[in-house]
Amino acid sequence: MRYRPLGQTGLRVSELFLGTMAFGKPVPESDCREMLDAFADAGGNAIDTAVVYRGGESETILGELLRGRRDRFVLGTKYALSRDATDVNASGNHRKNLRLSLETSLRRLRTDYLDVYWVHVWDLRTPAEEILRSLDDAVRAGKVLHLGISDTPAWWVSRANQLAESRGWTPFSAVQVPYNLLWRDVERELLPMAEALGLSVTTWNPLAGGVLSGRYLDGGTGGGRRDPATLTERDHTAARVVRDVARELSATPSQVAIAWLLARSPSVLPILGPRTPAQLKDALGAAGVELPAEAVERLTGAVPFERGFPADFLKGLDI
User: Distance between CA 84 and CA 205 in Å, rounded?
Assistant: First the structure.
């Protein structure tokens, strides 16, 4: 496993993150422990969860599994989505929800600090000043070391970090986005912004709901979350190219799909979201897959994608 700095901080994180959205029923705690142990044995040190995952079970299980070794991991959780559907203030980015969510997460995770605290999603209404000042207060209190933001427009993140710099507050060091061979929207604004500002980019759903693992090819039902009837020819085309490259490299399709993400940019850090130890073992193998430049080009060109205006327009200018 290789390591990269988290944004412009000195914190080093493994190039693959362990996503624990599946930790909790129906996944038994024994499987969760096996996955965490396998991740650590492979050199992984970065863990991603959220206050709402599995109704809080993900954090509670992690808190138990990390006993005696918590400081060896870069632990991050997220807030913003609703913790309680009966309370209108149990969701959003505002100071009250931030404080209560943070205290809930610290208690469940059995720790007195988080390495990374993430805004799960911009709520479209809380002023940036309130969010940043509240997060900075958590950093100054020693409860949080670094900050990240997920699923938020590039313009908002760049404005927020400029505001943080001007006020002497803690800036965001990373963004979290969906990214895979089929979902490349982040290449339009978010990825270029992150590279320009020195932010890490943790990416969720690297296998596009299992499509890129090849489980739906040749009439396969997949046994996953996707209805095979909803898959398009574009989906199948991408999956076939991934499978072909995997066969040539004696790797698995999942490993190739994740390795493609690692090859896209040194800023990109894929989040693995296994539901079983076997899935995790397979995905971890991506760290050992070196894609030849020709393979990267084949995968990138497997399905049509346009960055659109202004990226393609500016690229075509001769000035």
Answer: 26
Report pLDDT for 229. Answer: 84
Q: Do strands 17-19 and 12-14 pair parallel, antiparallel, or not at all (unpaired)? A: unpaired
**Look-up: residue for tokens 């080093």?**
12
Q: What is the mean pLDDT of residues 159-182?
A: 98
Position 115 confidence tier, pLDDT thresholds 50, 70, 90: very high
Instruction: Report the DSSP beta bridge partners of residue 77.
Output: 117
Alpha-carbon span 176 to 196, nearest angstrom:
16
- Residue 250: which CATH number? 3.20.20.100
| Model confidence pLDDT, tens digit, residues 203-250 | 999 999 999 999 999 877 666 677 888 899 999 999 999 999 999 999
Average pLDDT, the chain: 96
Neighbours of 215 (CB within 10 A): 20
Give the domain range for residue 303.
3-315
Active site includes 53? yes
Q: Which of 3, 53, 113, 117 is catalytic?
A: 53
Residues 6+ apart with CB under 8 A from 278: none
Q: Is 313 helix (H, G, I), strand (E, B) or coil?
A: helix
Packing angle, helices 277-284 and 29-41, rounded to 10: 20
Enumerate the β-bridge partners of residue 137: none
Cα distances from 184 to residues 26, 150, 187, in angstroms, run: 31, 16, 6
Q: Which residues pair with 272 in a beta bridge?
A: 18
Query: In this predicted structure, what is the pLDDT of residue 223?
Result: 66
What's the domain count of the chain?
A: 1
List the Cα angle 24/30/35 in 5-degree steps.
Answer: 80
